[in-house]
Amino acid sequence: MEMSRHLTFTKFLEQFGDFSEEIHSAIESKLQRIELPKRHILLKKGKVCNHLYFMEKGLARNYYEEDNKELTNDITVEGELLVSFSSFISRSPSLETIELLEDSTLTAFHYDDLNWLYEKYPEMERFGRLVAEYNYNSLVLKSYELKFKSSTERYEELFNSKIELIRRAPIGIIASYLGMSIETLSRIRSKIN
Question: What is the b/e burial string over 72-104, where b = at least 16 CB atoms within 10 angstroms of the residue's CB?
Protein backbone atom coordinates (compact mmCIF):
# COMPACT_ATOMS: atom_id res chain seq x y z
CA MET A 1 0.00 0.00 0.00
CA GLU A 2 1.60 3.28 -1.08
CA MET A 3 1.52 6.01 1.57
CA SER A 4 1.49 9.56 0.26
CA ARG A 5 3.03 12.61 1.87
CA HIS A 6 1.21 15.41 3.70
CA LEU A 7 -1.50 13.27 5.25
CA THR A 8 -3.16 13.82 8.58
CA PHE A 9 -3.22 10.89 10.98
CA THR A 10 -6.94 10.28 10.37
CA LYS A 11 -6.41 10.41 6.58
CA PHE A 12 -3.61 7.88 7.03
CA LEU A 13 -6.03 5.58 8.89
CA GLU A 14 -8.70 6.03 6.21
CA GLN A 15 -6.36 4.32 3.76
CA PHE A 16 -7.12 1.11 5.68
CA GLY A 17 -10.92 1.54 5.45
CA ASP A 18 -13.82 3.83 6.31
CA PHE A 19 -14.97 4.78 9.77
CA SER A 20 -17.87 6.84 11.08
CA GLU A 21 -17.83 10.55 11.82
CA GLU A 22 -18.26 9.66 15.51
CA ILE A 23 -15.07 7.56 15.47
CA HIS A 24 -13.28 10.25 13.46
CA SER A 25 -14.19 12.83 16.13
CA ALA A 26 -13.16 10.43 18.93
CA ILE A 27 -9.75 9.91 17.32
CA GLU A 28 -9.25 13.64 16.75
CA SER A 29 -10.12 14.37 20.40
CA LYS A 30 -7.25 12.14 21.57
CA LEU A 31 -4.53 13.41 19.23
CA GLN A 32 -1.83 15.81 20.35
CA ARG A 33 0.05 17.87 17.76
CA ILE A 34 3.63 18.68 18.77
CA GLU A 35 6.53 20.54 17.21
CA LEU A 36 10.02 19.51 18.24
CA PRO A 37 13.55 20.51 17.18
CA LYS A 38 16.15 18.59 15.25
CA ARG A 39 18.14 16.12 17.41
CA HIS A 40 15.27 15.77 19.93
CA ILE A 41 15.15 12.25 21.38
CA LEU A 42 11.52 11.08 21.30
CA LEU A 43 12.30 7.75 22.92
CA LYS A 44 15.42 6.56 24.71
CA LYS A 45 16.50 2.93 24.64
CA GLY A 46 15.27 1.20 27.79
CA LYS A 47 12.09 3.29 28.12
CA VAL A 48 8.61 2.03 27.20
CA CYS A 49 7.19 3.58 24.04
CA ASN A 50 3.90 5.16 25.16
CA HIS A 51 3.07 7.03 21.97
CA LEU A 52 2.39 6.21 18.37
CA TYR A 53 3.54 9.21 16.32
CA PHE A 54 2.50 10.28 12.87
CA MET A 55 5.05 12.38 10.99
CA GLU A 56 3.34 15.47 9.54
CA LYS A 57 6.58 17.28 8.74
CA GLY A 58 10.18 16.32 9.30
CA LEU A 59 12.51 13.36 9.34
CA ALA A 60 13.40 10.88 12.09
CA ARG A 61 15.21 7.63 12.65
CA ASN A 62 14.95 4.61 14.92
CA TYR A 63 18.34 3.20 15.83
CA TYR A 64 20.00 0.55 17.96
CA GLU A 65 23.02 1.47 20.04
CA GLU A 66 25.47 -1.10 21.36
CA ASP A 67 29.12 -0.61 22.37
CA ASN A 68 29.11 3.02 21.13
CA LYS A 69 27.95 1.89 17.68
CA GLU A 70 24.67 3.09 16.19
CA LEU A 71 22.72 1.03 13.64
CA THR A 72 19.78 2.77 11.98
CA ASN A 73 16.78 0.49 11.87
CA ASP A 74 14.27 2.79 10.18
CA ILE A 75 13.96 6.31 8.75
CA THR A 76 10.58 8.03 8.83
CA VAL A 77 9.38 10.82 6.54
CA GLU A 78 6.13 12.75 6.20
CA GLY A 79 3.02 10.61 6.00
CA GLU A 80 4.48 7.68 7.95
CA LEU A 81 4.18 6.28 11.47
CA LEU A 82 7.02 6.70 13.94
CA VAL A 83 7.08 4.23 16.83
CA SER A 84 9.13 1.59 18.57
CA PHE A 85 6.48 -0.90 17.58
CA SER A 86 7.63 -3.86 19.69
CA SER A 87 7.84 -1.71 22.83
CA PHE A 88 4.52 0.01 22.11
CA ILE A 89 2.51 -3.20 21.75
CA SER A 90 4.32 -5.34 24.35
CA ARG A 91 4.71 -2.53 26.94
CA SER A 92 8.35 -3.59 27.38
CA PRO A 93 11.47 -1.40 27.38
CA SER A 94 12.50 -0.33 23.90
CA LEU A 95 15.60 -1.77 22.30
CA GLU A 96 15.87 1.30 20.08
CA THR A 97 16.11 5.07 20.35
CA ILE A 98 14.03 7.46 18.24
CA GLU A 99 15.74 10.71 17.19
CA LEU A 100 14.46 13.59 15.08
CA LEU A 101 16.80 14.42 12.18
CA GLU A 102 14.99 17.66 11.30
CA ASP A 103 12.70 20.12 13.05
CA SER A 104 9.47 18.11 13.03
CA THR A 105 5.72 18.36 13.47
CA LEU A 106 4.18 15.19 14.84
CA THR A 107 0.78 13.92 15.86
CA ALA A 108 1.01 11.86 19.05
CA PHE A 109 -1.49 9.17 20.03
CA HIS A 110 -1.08 7.68 23.52
CA TYR A 111 -1.25 3.92 24.11
CA ASP A 112 -4.02 4.34 26.71
CA ASP A 113 -6.09 6.41 24.28
CA LEU A 114 -5.72 3.74 21.62
CA ASN A 115 -7.00 1.10 24.03
CA TRP A 116 -9.88 3.36 25.06
CA LEU A 117 -10.75 3.67 21.37
CA TYR A 118 -10.64 -0.13 20.95
CA GLU A 119 -12.95 -0.61 23.94
CA LYS A 120 -15.44 2.10 22.93
CA TYR A 121 -15.43 1.22 19.21
CA PRO A 122 -14.58 -2.47 18.72
CA GLU A 123 -14.48 -1.99 14.93
CA MET A 124 -11.33 0.09 15.46
CA GLU A 125 -9.45 -3.08 16.40
CA ARG A 126 -9.60 -3.97 12.70
CA PHE A 127 -7.77 -0.72 11.87
CA GLY A 128 -5.19 -1.50 14.52
CA ARG A 129 -4.65 -4.95 13.04
CA LEU A 130 -4.31 -3.58 9.50
CA VAL A 131 -1.80 -0.93 10.58
CA ALA A 132 0.16 -3.60 12.50
CA GLU A 133 0.15 -5.86 9.44
CA TYR A 134 1.35 -2.97 7.26
CA ASN A 135 4.24 -2.25 9.66
CA TYR A 136 5.12 -5.93 9.93
CA ASN A 137 5.19 -6.38 6.16
CA SER A 138 7.49 -3.35 5.82
CA LEU A 139 9.91 -4.84 8.36
CA VAL A 140 9.90 -8.25 6.67
CA LEU A 141 10.62 -6.67 3.28
CA LYS A 142 13.52 -4.64 4.70
CA SER A 143 14.93 -7.72 6.44
CA TYR A 144 14.72 -9.72 3.20
CA GLU A 145 16.43 -6.97 1.21
CA LEU A 146 19.28 -6.71 3.74
CA LYS A 147 19.88 -10.45 3.53
CA PHE A 148 19.47 -11.13 -0.17
CA LYS A 149 19.99 -7.96 -2.20
CA SER A 150 23.38 -6.51 -3.03
CA SER A 151 24.47 -3.16 -1.63
CA THR A 152 23.86 -1.56 -5.03
CA GLU A 153 20.38 -3.08 -5.29
CA ARG A 154 19.47 -1.83 -1.79
CA TYR A 155 20.63 1.69 -2.65
CA GLU A 156 18.78 1.68 -5.98
CA GLU A 157 15.59 0.49 -4.26
CA LEU A 158 15.84 3.31 -1.72
CA PHE A 159 16.64 5.80 -4.49
CA ASN A 160 13.56 4.71 -6.46
CA SER A 161 11.14 4.46 -3.53
CA LYS A 162 12.26 7.21 -1.12
CA ILE A 163 14.50 9.68 -2.93
CA GLU A 164 13.78 12.28 -0.23
CA LEU A 165 15.73 10.16 2.28
CA ILE A 166 18.79 10.31 0.07
CA ARG A 167 18.42 14.08 -0.29
CA ARG A 168 17.72 14.82 3.37
CA ALA A 169 19.39 12.26 5.64
CA PRO A 170 23.12 12.34 6.46
CA ILE A 171 25.17 9.83 4.45
CA GLY A 172 26.24 7.92 7.57
CA ILE A 173 22.63 7.34 8.59
CA ILE A 174 21.68 6.20 5.07
CA ALA A 175 24.64 3.81 5.00
CA SER A 176 23.69 2.37 8.39
CA TYR A 177 20.04 2.00 7.30
CA LEU A 178 21.14 0.12 4.18
CA GLY A 179 23.53 -2.10 6.14
CA MET A 180 26.77 -0.90 4.55
CA SER A 181 29.77 1.30 5.30
CA ILE A 182 29.95 4.96 4.27
CA GLU A 183 32.80 4.04 1.90
CA THR A 184 30.68 1.40 0.14
CA LEU A 185 27.77 3.83 -0.18
CA SER A 186 30.08 6.52 -1.56
CA ARG A 187 31.43 4.10 -4.19
CA ILE A 188 27.91 3.09 -5.21
CA ARG A 189 26.82 6.73 -5.47
CA SER A 190 29.82 7.65 -7.62
CA LYS A 191 29.14 4.76 -10.01
CA ILE A 192 25.46 5.66 -10.38
CA ASN A 193 26.05 9.40 -10.78
Answer: bbbbbbbbbbbbbbebbbeeeebebbbbbbbeb
* Closest CA relative to residue 63, chosen from 79, 80, 41, 48: 41
CATH number at residue 83: 2.60.120.10
* Number of domain units in the chain: 2
Co-location of 93 and 166 in the same domain? no
The letter for the amino acid at 128 is G
Are residues 166 and 123 part of one domain? Answer: no
User: Can you tell me the distance from the alpha carbon of 55 to that of 124, in angstroms, rounded to the nearest whole number?
Assistant: 21
Please choose, from the candidates 142, 146, 156, the residue with its C-alpha nearest in 3D space to the C-alpha of residue 185: 156
What digits encode the pLDDT tens for the residues 140-181?
A: 888 888 788 899 999 998 888 888 888 999 999 999 999 999
Q: What is the pTM of this model?
A: 0.87
Assign 101 to helix, strand or coil.
coil
- Asked if residue 3 has pLDDT above 70, the reply is no
pLDDT value of position 163: 87
Residue numbers of the domain that contains 176: 149-193
Q: Is 4 inside any structural domain?
A: no
